[in-house]
Amino acid sequence: MPAPSDVRRAADALRMLADPTRLNILWALMQGESSVACLAELAGTTPTAVSQHLSKLRLAGLVHNRREGTFVYYTLADDHIGEMVRQALSHADHRVGRDAHAPTVEAAAGQPG
Questions:
Q1: Prediction pTM value
Q2: Which residues contact 58 (CB under 8 A, 6 or more apart)?
Q3: Residue 12 to residue 110: CA distance in whole angstroms
Q4: Between 47 and which of 16, 33, 40, 43 could a Cys-Cys bridge form, CB atoms 3.0 to 4.6 Å apart?
């Protein structure tokens, strides 16, 4: 059995993935570093909402930020986060099936399908 502290951290990370806006934000960050304004546009929500989600993701250790003047840029904390997102979305594709013409999660991420 894994250590209780590892199980708790894993459960916390999975809880952070349980929100559609946060999944969209993390998906966007899989493509590279981004600002709050850009993430808001990609996620289809307001910069204020994205900032609140990013704060939670940062506290959970899933994203890192860096400040450049008045701008803050975000990245995934590590490759494991992207893999969790990819696996969760791939599982969702598998569960509901996909239209033959719709792009797969792997294709959207630039991965071989």
A1: 0.79
A2: 64, 65, 74
A3: 28
A4: 40
